[in-house]
Structures are given as structure tokens and as C-alpha cells.
Amino acid sequence: MKRRISLLFMMLFMVVLLSGCQLTDNYPFKTSAVLIAGSTMKEPSSDLTSLMDGFITPKGIDRKLMLLVAERDLRYHMSFTKELSGSGNLAYNISYLLNLPAKLFRNIQADIGIGKYFNEQAKSEAGISSYASSVYSVATPITWIIMDVIYAVIGLFAALLMLVFGTIIGLLHHPINTLTDLPGLIIGVVKTVYFAVAHFFYW
After folding, report:
1. Residue 203 resides in a domain
2. Domain total in the chain
3. pTM for the full predicted model
């Protein structure tokens, strides 16, 4: 029994090692799928679909979509700093931090779901193909969960740091917008507090 377990872990390690590049290359597709449609992979809303076309307009970053990214994307977007006003930076970082637990939960849920998909494939196949799918059903979620946690930790420290520095940078680059953005962003942050809890139950 111990020998079989040791062999399984050895094979798992080899698969992760040999296919690591493929798994990490595919990781952005997984995070994008979670961002756009959630872990249930339902039809995305029109607002989220527009994220696929980008959300930096000639006037800067769309505030509504910026908050959607903060509420749904596990990755921290440092590139937002100079584009957002001081109040925009503050709202983005507050929203990112508040929604981080739900985003991590949803991403891990998606990782496990993908692992189950490979496991179902293994049951319908035979021979080497079945064994490969079976190993992938373990290797893929483990690799991606580790990456989720790494992104979450990096995002946590970045958001905490940029709560202060991002707000200052945004204020210096966009002093007028920092004031004019404030009313709309206050409403957005109130909504994001709701989503920080609600996204544990629906996506």
C-alpha cells in the first residue's frame, strides 16, 4: 500500500514537473474563465463580456468595470495605479481586499471542478490515456491551487501597500478626477461590500 502511494506521488511529481509549463500557460485561461463567467461557467453578463475587449477608454479606466475586476479577478493589476485617480486607487484596493476571500474560494472551486472533469475523462478512457487523465485530475488542481494562493498573497500585500501609495500617485496624476470620481466610487464601494459576502453564495 505504501509502495503504491509512493509511486503515485512520484508520478504526480513527474507530471507536474514535465507538464508544468503547459499547466502554468493554461492558468490565465482558467482565471479569465472565472473572471468572465464564474466557477459555474454560466453565460457572462454584458458588463463582464465587455472586459474581454478591454476597459481602458480614451477617458481612462471605466470605474464600473474597474470595480468588477477588483471583485472578480484574483490577480492584482498594478498597471491601474497611474490610470486611476486617487479615489479610484483607494476604491480598487479596498474592493480587491474585501473580495479576496470570495475570489480565492471561487478560483479553488473552479480548480477542483476542472480536476473532476479530468477524472470523468479517465473513467471513459482506457490504458495510458486513462492513466494520464487520472494523474492530470490531481496534478492540475494542485498546481493551480498553489498558483491561486501565490497570486492571493501577492495581491494582499500589493493592495495593502497601494492603499496608501496608489492613492497618493493617483492624486498627483489626476487631482481633479480624484474629487469628481468620489461620489460614484462611494456608491461602488458600498456595493462591493455586499458582493464580498454574496459571491460566496453566487457568482
Report:
1. no
2. 1
3. 0.75
